């Protein structure tokens, strides 16, 4: 008998993955692909949207040929800040412009001057001024640089919704994509910002559909439903929102360490925006306050410096065990300052001052955690958070986790591990549309940290 499954396409900037989940959210099949980038009309690298489209169709056809699976639904999670502009025939009119592309300063200045100034507009839209990373500004630029092309746009679809459109033929928008540093959404009024009306851009945005609905597939003969797709950061938060109802913060760690507080409804301040805070909308439409640090990148850079100085291999620092004695010694030797900037706190330290490489490594992580405390406090203040979850790379770092637990003695600190959180979140978002079973409560594995001990639960 065929096993009921959901197909999730998880599209990152580098890796494109496909997962099949059974009704207990076990991965029963997966594959990945990487595409060669193409370039836009200015020669800037960008996603090959045609390769992506063909790959998605081919992959799903392959799944349908597997008799052991019965596809009940399909959903998508992709990176954000990326629009596909489709014409009346539903085909893309432009390349999928890269959000790393430099944004013209004159157009940026014109935009912010026209609509109340940078401070006011970034506050209202909870979007730091990030140039092309503000996808709304990509549309504004297109209108002012290529007005004839802009007129031909029927809909501007964020990438997750374009992928959904390929299977349903129904253009739609989704709050997780609209609400993530796009500059499109007025968080004070909970609607599109007025500038989108003035510029005629609101007319190019498809109707908003809830992230927990699914639409019948366009192709006849296959009785499966299709989700509207989600922005990947929002998708990764969904398993936590399903499993934990008491207020919590999730620190998602990788190259960036992002503190996410879905229980902070306080408006952003100018100070928070200047410290790399922003808000986005989670799949149920509520704001999530977030702050960011470049800690994963800094950690990788500094362990190379430690290894070179002490003539060791960087692999050694993957599994350094927390040593409270070293921490006490380093604290007595020099009070580590909480620093509001990620700029080279450890970089300014002379490695010759440390007894050995393990002392140096503990100091590195102490410096990173001090910065993490500052960053997390930006989204923690004024809320009744009782739990702090850490997932990603630092969740497996004994020194980091113990120091974090020491820094937040009144909050329960856990490392959390889950296979493919983003894809699981996309599957969970439309659970009721395809799955007859209750949501399992063991999707996330937790380990509790206190200053002196760890307990697996």
Automatic annotation (TrEMBL):
Coiled coil: none annotated. The keyword Transferase applies. Keywords: Kinase, Transferase. One of its GO terms (biological process) is glycerol metabolic process. SUPFAM superfamilies: Actin-like ATPase domain (SSF53067). Residues 5-203 form the Carbohydrate kinase FGGY N-terminal domain. Pfam families: FGGY_C_2, FGGY_N. One of its GO terms (molecular function) is ATP binding. The keyword Kinase applies. Residues 246-305 form the Carbohydrate kinase FGGY C-terminal domain. GO terms for cellular component: cytosol. Belongs to the FGGY kinase family. PANTHER family: GLYCEROL KINASE, SUGAR KINASE. This is Carbohydrate kinase.
């Amino acid at each position: 008998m065929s096993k009921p499954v959901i197909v999730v396409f998880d599209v990152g900037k580098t890796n494109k993955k496909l997962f099949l989940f059974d009704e207990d959210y076990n991965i029963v099949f997966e594959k990945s692909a990487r595409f060669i980038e193409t370039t836009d009309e200015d020669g800037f690298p960008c996603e090959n949207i045609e390769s992506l489209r063909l790959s998605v169709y081919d992959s799903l056809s392959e799944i349908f040929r597997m008799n052991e699976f019965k596809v009940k639904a399909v959903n998508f999670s992709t990176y954000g800040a990326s629009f596909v502009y489709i014409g009346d025939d539903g085909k893309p009119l432009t390349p999928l412009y890269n959000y790393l592309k430099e944004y013209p300063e004159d157009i940026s200045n014109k935009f912010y001057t026209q609509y109340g100034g940078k401070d006011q507009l970034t506050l209202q839209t909870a979007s730091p001024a990030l140039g092309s990373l503000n996808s709304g500004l990509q549309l504004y630029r297109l209108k002012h640089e290529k007005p004839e092309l802009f007129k031909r746009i029927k809909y501007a679809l964020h990438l997750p919704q374009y992928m959904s459109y390929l299977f349903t033929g129904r253009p739609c928008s989704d709050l997780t994509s609209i609400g993530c540093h796009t500059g499109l959404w007025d968080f004070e009024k909970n609607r599109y910002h007025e500038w989108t009306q003035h510029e005629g851009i609101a007319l190019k945005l498809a109707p908003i559909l809830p992230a927990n609905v699914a639409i019948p597939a366009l192709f006849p003969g296959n009785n499966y439903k299709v989700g509207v797709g989600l922005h990947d950061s929002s998708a990764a938060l969904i398993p936590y929102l399903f499993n934990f109802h008491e207020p919590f913060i999730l620190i998602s760690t990788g190259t960036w360490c992002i503190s996410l507080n879905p229980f902070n409804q306080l408006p952003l301040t100018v100070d928070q925006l200047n410290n790399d805070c922003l808000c986005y909308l989670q799949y149920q439409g509520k704001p999530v306050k977030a702050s960011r640090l470049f800690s994963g990148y800094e950690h990788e850079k500094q362990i190379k410096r430690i290894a070179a100085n002490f003539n060791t291999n960087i692999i050694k620092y993957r599994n350094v065990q927390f040593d409270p004695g070293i921490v006490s010694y380093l604290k007595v030797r020099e009070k580590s300052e909480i620093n509001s900037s990620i700029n080279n706190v450890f970089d300014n330290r002379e490695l010759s001052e440390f007894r050995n490489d393990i002392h140096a490594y503990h100091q590195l992580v102490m410096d990173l955690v001090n910065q993490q405390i500052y960053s997390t406090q930006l989204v923690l203040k004024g809320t009744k958070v009782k739990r702090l979850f850490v997932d990603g790379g630092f969740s497996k770092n004994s020194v980091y986790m113990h120091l974090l637990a020491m820094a937040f003695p009144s909050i329960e600190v856990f490392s959390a591990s889950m296979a493919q959180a983003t894809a699981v979140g996309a599957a969970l978002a439309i659970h009721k549309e395809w799955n007859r079973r209750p949501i399992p409560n063991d999707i996330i594995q937790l380990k509790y940290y206190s200053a002196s001990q760890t307990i697996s639960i």
